[in-house]
């Protein structure tokens, strides 16, 4: 049954990534940790872009909401990591609920522009409230982070090994959740709304309601990724609120395969290493990002796993 | 006092004319090609940067004023042929592709021009003596050139056969094509023109502001604001909104920091679009 | 037999009634003062030349657009203000003139998307605990329209006529009380037309059907009553025999071909 193959593949991927932490040299160990966090962010983006078909150009605001929602209480109030994480997730969720309610009133090409504007406002707010956020200098949490208490153990969050496990754990949970969502009735409705909104509407589905839920889910998970990232790396900086981090998930998802569950991981993996290599040559390495966006849009809109699914593996979710 | 009022009026009008020149191109892209060109600010920036380059190399600002916009138009024409036409101006792919092009243009400029902001001396020195103060001749020239180009654009669009074809294409591309209008050529020409106008604005601004590889972002925001407030694709509305922006700019910069001003501007664009509801280019 | 039964219900409340329905687009009057009554269990044919307002009327009943004036009553209750999605839940479903299916979903998924609207009503249902019931309902509907073999095909790979059948399957999966079909036989092969005609006939009397058609033999064959429209107004109403015989109708419509 097709379901079985998909399940096995996802289990396999999760298992391989889990084992990798024991064999990778330190540099790649750190790279993969970051890749796992960003893949979670990318999967959140994929739900909205790949499945619901909504182009958000301000998603960094949700990631940043999670980051600051977790980081600020730790820095200023000495909050514990567990609560801080939940607060970060909640911040992303709340912001998504508000922004979604407003933005979804705009349809077609207006939606991307509106989300871009809101995203920019979030970034500018981190600059405006410089005295709280210390803008791009950032807040270093490392000294203030209390270790996570799990029963009798005291786990220092910023230890690279712990960090990897956290990233991997979050990634795996979100991977399973997204696999479940896209094959659920709710996922079906999102795709239906994307494919033919009028038909879905006249079949009894109010487009606004379902899309709003998708935005909330997407924003909440992005916030969780941001919160976890901030707590694990012990750093909160507003670079993650800039438009670059709204464009990255778009590129990651497009490259890896929009509308596939594993596409985000593939996209993050490729682009992270690509940017790393190019930045060794020039400080204008972001030209890779721009070129990749153009080339993928022009010639490769299905993305890698999208092409794989169309040509060979029809069962790929 | 009259003196301050006149100064504010002059400044606001010059500013408004520059904003209009920057924004009208975006309005044309919205109106006729029905696309959101996120790279529009980059054309403004390229105009400025190229102007700096040409002026510094040849000493002639006038040469820069003629060459830079033409170069930018060529770049835009290439963009149109290689990127926009293949995706057939579809809204989603166009936004993503122009976003990518924005990065490419910005980063190339960073690599070739560097991260610094550089200025150029005003080609026209001196002031015009008014009863209350002396006003820069250059600024008056900027206003004049902008007004001339805006008027020219208006005349072309409303009075010439080319303009007629553009408006026919805007109304209904399929029917226009059936009547022999070379729709794709009109698209290319309009896109190049939109870039050229923004580039001229960039050139004119360099003696006043300095050329920097990131200056396109503010230009984009301002253009968005003018176009959105002006009724999405209507040239007249865009110009009117530009004047509104120009005249309030002086007051705004007294009370708001640049960051706060940008926040407010972005929120205005967002909320006008949200309040309006519906789509952006499909029916304004 | 059916005609007599329908005559009996004439005194009862109609399933659907429009009162003074009017729809204008700018200066164009698409519908003008339409009073329509459709009764439980009947198959009502709706014919007329192009531009008569048939699809507009159907769209207003289904809730695709709001009328400029007038009211729509479902079993006596005013539903004019209800949105399209709400009307689906009230039991009105429509298949469009240009078949609208979800291209990148399989036939199964297309019909499932419809079936789940009525099967999965509470939030908890979305945990897909009723997957089997959903699959059964979909299979049942696909058999009814004859598409069970195309179950796993992507909808956009199907020929035009089959896409139309998918859409009809989607409508049926919603188990509506009033089924509106807008030119369902267009693009179908003759044997498919016969199959569809049988399908439509079979819908009554459990469901009520409003059938818009240009294919006159089909309409006159399967309908209990026929409404003839012209220029945004109802021109004539009667049994198929009456419609065929009326000289006014012949002049307006039948004479012009169809």
Gap between N and C termini of chain B: 41 Å
- Biggest sheet: strand arrangement of chain C: 6-7-8-3-9-10
End-to-end Cα distance of chain C, whole Å, is 28 Å
Mean of residue pLDDT of chain B? 91
Oligomer: heterotrimer
Helix content of chain C: 25-40%
- Strand segment tally of chain B: 2
Q: Estimate percent helicity of chain B.
A: over 70%
Q: Can you summarize the main beta sheet of chain C?
A: 6 strands, mixed
CATH architecture of chain B: Orthogonal Bundle
Lateral strand order in the biggest sheet of chain B: 1-2
Biggest interface, chains and residues, is:
A-B, 39 and 44 residues
Shape descriptor of chain B: globular
The CATH topology of chain B is what?
ABC transporter involved in vitamin B12 uptake, BtuC
The domain count of chain B comes to 1
Secondary-structure-derived class of chain B: mainly alpha
Q: Which sequence of SSEs, written as H and E, runs from N to C of chain B?
A: HHHHEEHHHHHHH
Largest sheet of chain B: 2 strands, antiparallel
Continuous helix count of chain B: 11
Low-confidence stretches of chain C: none
